TrEMBL record:
Residues 86-324 form the Capsule synthesis protein CapA domain. Signal peptide: none annotated. This is Poly-gamma-glutamate synthesis protein (Capsule biosynthesis protein). Residues 1-22 are annotated as: Disordered. InterPro entries: Capsule_synth_CapA (IPR019079), CW_Biosynth-Accessory (IPR052169), Metallo-depent_PP-like (IPR029052). Residues 10-22 have a biased composition (Basic residues). SUPFAM superfamilies: Metallo-dependent phosphatases. CDD domains: MPP_CapA (cd07381). Belongs to the CapA family.
Length: 391
C-alpha cells in the first residue's frame, strides 16, 4: 500500500528539490568544457552537436579477460546506438615534480577529465615507472610514481593506460618488477609491459555497447629502454614496435578477436611536429594489419592526424599532465581527441583544445585561444600525407 499522506508528499517535494539542485550543479560544471568542445568542433568537425562529445557520460562496461580490471562507474546518460563506440585519447601523463601533488586531487587530470569521462573508453600514456625502489638507469631523465597513480587516473575517467614507453623502466629490473606488481593489482588495465613478450603484446579486449574493442600498445622509440628492457620469450619488459613483425602479429591476433582495434604507440622524434619516414611506414603496416586507429605520443609536441585509408592515425598528442616545461615551441598545446566508431569504421573525430598551465595541468581553452590551438592542430596534417578525418 502506498502512503499518500502529508509526510510522503513533503518527502517527494524534498526529493524533487534535490534533483533540481543536482541538475543545476551539473550544468554549471559542464559549461566551460562544453565551450571548449564547441571551439574544437567549429574548426575540426561539424558532425552532430558539440554537446554529443562532452555531455554524453557513458561508462565502459568492459572487463578484462582476468577479473582484475573493474568497469567504469554506472553510465550517466543513454548509450550510443548499438554498434557505435566513442574512444577518447590524450597524451603523456605522470605524477612527479610539479604534478606530484595531483595524486591528492580529484580529478587528477583537472577539468579535461570531463571530455575523457564522456567517452565510452579513454586512454593515456603513463610516462613513468611505478616504483619506489630500484637503480636509476644510465639516462638523463628519470620518472617514477606510486600505484596510487592508477587509481587517480581511473577517477579522472581513464579506462586504460600504456606503459610501453622510454620511461617505464627508468629504475631497472627492480623497478620493473614493482611496475608489474602494480599492473597485476591495478584498477584499470596497464598495457605494453609484461613478464614476457606474450604478456607485453597481449591486447586488452572488452565489449562496449555490443562492440568488441581490442587495444595493443608498444614503443617505437629507439632508446636505452627499448634495447635493454625489451620483452622477450622469457624476459620481462616493454612491447617494442622496433620488432615490427611481432607487433603486426599482435595486431592481427587482436583483429581476430575484435570489431575495433586501436594501437597506441610511443613513437616519433622529440620536438618534431612532422612524422618521420619510420612513423609513416609503421602506420601503413598497422593499417594493413587491420588497425582501426593508430595513435600515440612521445614528441612533447602535437603532430597531425587524419585518415590513412580506413585507418585513423594521430601521430602525436603532445604532453597532457606534465612535470615541467619543454624547450620545444607550442609544447604546452594539447587536447583530447574523441573518435566515434560506427560499424567498425571511424565516423567522426572531435578535438577538444587545452593548454598545459603553470602547474602542469591541462586546462580547456575556449574562444580565440581554443580556436588558435585547434587551427594549428588542423594545419599540422599538412606534412602527414593523411586525409581529413570524417566529421
Amino acid at each position: 500500500m502506498t502512503d499518500t499522506g502529508p509526510i510522503s508528499r513533503r518527502a517527494q517535494r524534498r526529493a524533487r528539490a534535490r534533483r533540481r539542485r543536482r541538475r543545476n550543479a551539473a550544468v554549471g560544471a559542464s559549461v566551460l568544457l562544453l565551450a571548449a568542445v564547441a571551439t574544437g568542433w567549429a574548426v575540426y568537425g561539424r558532425g552532430g552537436s558539440p554537446a554529443d562529445a562532452a555531455a554524453r557520460q557513458v561508462a565502459a562496461p568492459g572487463t578484462a579477460p582476468a577479473a582484475a580490471h573493474p568497469a567504469k562507474p554506472a553510465a550517466k546518460a543513454p548509450a550510443e546506438p548499438a554498434g557505435t563506440v566513442t574512444l577518447a585519447f590524450a597524451g603523456d601523463v605522470h605524477f612527479t615534480e610539479r604534478t606530484a601533488d595531483r595524486l591528492g586531487v580529484d580529478p587528477a587530470l583537472g577539468p579535461m577529465s570531463t571530455a575523457l569521462s564522456a567517452a565510452d573508453f579513454a586512454m593515456v600514456n603513463l610516462e613513468s615507472a611505478i616504483t619506489s625502489r630500484g637503480t636509476a638507469q644510465p639516462k638523463k631523465y628519470h620518472f617514477r610514481t606510486t600505484p596510487a597513480a592508477l587509481g587517480a587516473l581511473k577517477r579522472s575517467g581513464i579506462d586504460a593506460v600504456t606503459m610501453a614507453n622510454n620511461h617505464a623502466v627508468d629504475y631497472g629490473a627492480q623497478g620493473l618488477q614493482d611496475s608489474l606488481a602494480a599492473q597485476a593489482s591495478a584498477p584499470i588495465p596497464v598495457l605494453g609491459i609484461g613478464a614476457d613478450e606474450t604478456a607485453a603484446y597481449r591486447p586488452y579486449v572488452t565489449t562496449i555497447n555490443g562492440v568488441r574493442l581490442a587495444v595493443v600498445a608498444a614503443s617505437q622509440v629507439q632508446d636505452y629502454t627499448n634495447q635493454a628492457f625489451r620483452a622477450g620469450p622469457d624476459r620481462p619488459g616493454i612491447a617494442s614496435a622496433l620488432d615490427r613483425p611481432r607487433l603486426l602479429r599482435a595486431v592481427r591476433d587482436a583483429k581476430r578477436q575484435a570489431d575495433v582495434v586501436v594501437v597506441y604507440l610511443h613513437w616519433g622524434t622529440e620536438g618534431q611536429n612532422c612524422p618521420g619516414p619510420e612513423q609513416k611506414s609503421i602506420a601503413a603496416d598497422l593499417s594493413q594489419a587491420g588497425a582501426t586507429a593508430v595513435v600515440g605520443t612521445h614528441a612533447h609536441v602535437m603532430l597531425g592526424s587524419g585518415m590513412l585509408g580506413p585507418t585513423y592515425v594521430a601521430y602525436g598528442f603532445g604532453n597532457f599532465l606534465w612535470y615541467g616545461s619543454s624547450p620545444y615551441p607550442h609544447s604546452d598545446q594539447t587536447g583530447v581527441t574523441t573518435l566515434t566508431v560506427t560499424r567498425g569504421k571511424v565516423a567522426r573525430a572531435v578535438f577538444t583544445p587545452a593548454l598545459v598551465d603553470g602547474n602542469g595541468v591541462p586546462q580547456p581553452q575556449t574562444g580565440s585561444a581554443g580556436t588558435a590551438i585547434t587551427d594549428r592542430y588542423a594545419q599540422l596534417r599538412g606534412c602527414t600525407g593523411l586525409a581529413t578525418a570524417p566529421h
